[in-house]
TrEMBL record:
Any one GO molecular function term: amino-acid racemase activity
UniProt entry keywords in alphabetical sequence: Isomerase
InterPro entries, per database record: Asp/Glu/hydantoin_racemase, Asp/Glu_race, Asp/Glu_racemase_AS_2, Asp_race
Pfam family, one: Asp_Glu_race
Isomerase found in the keyword field: yes
Full protein name: Aspartate/glutamate racemase family protein
Family indicated by similarity: Belongs to the aspartate/glutamate racemases family.
Naturally occurring in which organism (per UniProt): Flagellimonas allohymeniacidonis
Length: 230
């Protein structure tokens, strides 16, 4: 079994779900008392958040490169960045290390294509929804049509994520708001919904949406386990 290296802490609420997923998936596939071989290097999200809002992605990239190198030195065989938004600086990781890096948008795109869908909505932070690092992969590599919410709804999602979800606050009100945003997008003919923030699947269970949802955390973790057991 190969060792999965995880960069966590963005937020730790979702990082613990990554750890849970990879271990449960390994046990399901191998049985017995098997669990995943893994290393996690977890950052202080307060600083990452400040750099994000000051648009200082270069510093975030440097920090991610440093974390990835730490994982490589610790014996990891692949790197998993346990967040959607910070994949914006994934090139810093791939340029700083020699081991494989599993991109969350590529894993998600493959899952959507396997489901036979062509038009999907993307929910996440404003950075994920408005910058092209995520949608470009989905569109160019998987020929998907990607819709994002209107401007005010993007701002609302941003506030919910940073003021509540990353702090471990998951309310019925926030869930209803997100479901309302999805209802608006359904009028544009979407066939599925990407929960493109690693905390969103905690807030919105699959059964709450009457379209296929794509839990990027679970999809990403599954790809890592497939690699680790290959």
């Amino acid at each position: 079994m190969k060792t999965i290296g995880m960069i966590g802490g963005m937020s730790w609420e979702s990082s613990k779900i990554y750890y849970q997923h990879v271990n449960e998936m390994v046990r399901e596939q191998l049985g017995g008392s098997h669990s995943a071989k893994s290393v996690m290097s977890s950052v202080d999200f307060e600083q990452i958040e400040k750099w994000s809002f000051s648009d200082d992605w270069g510093k975030i990239g440097q920090e991610m490169a440093s974390q990835a190198q730490r994982l490589e030195k610790a014996g990891s065989d692949l790197i998993l960045l346990c967040t959607n938004t910070i994949h914006l600086v994934s090139d810093h990781i791939t340029n700083a290390t020699r081991i494989p890096f599993l991109h969350i948008a590529e894993a998600t795109g493959a899952a959507i294509s396997a489901a036979g869908l062509k038009k999907v909505a993307l929910l996440g932070t404003q950075f994920t929804m408005e910058k092209d690092f995520y949608t470009k992969i989905l569109e160019d590599q998987f020929d998907l049509e990607v819709l994002v919410p209107e401007s005010n709804d993007r701002k609302t999602l941003q506030a919910i994520i940073y003021n509540e979800l990353v702090k471990g606050v998951f309310t019925e009100e926030a869930k209803k708001t997100c479901l309302g945003i999805i209802e608006k997008l359904k009028k544009h003919g979407i066939e599925g919904v990407i929960l493109g923030c690693t905390e969103l699947p905690i807030l919105i269970p699959d059964e709450e949406v009457d379209l296929p949802t794509f839990d990027t955390t679970k999809i990403h973790a599954q790809k890592a386990v497939e690699f680790a057991l290959s």
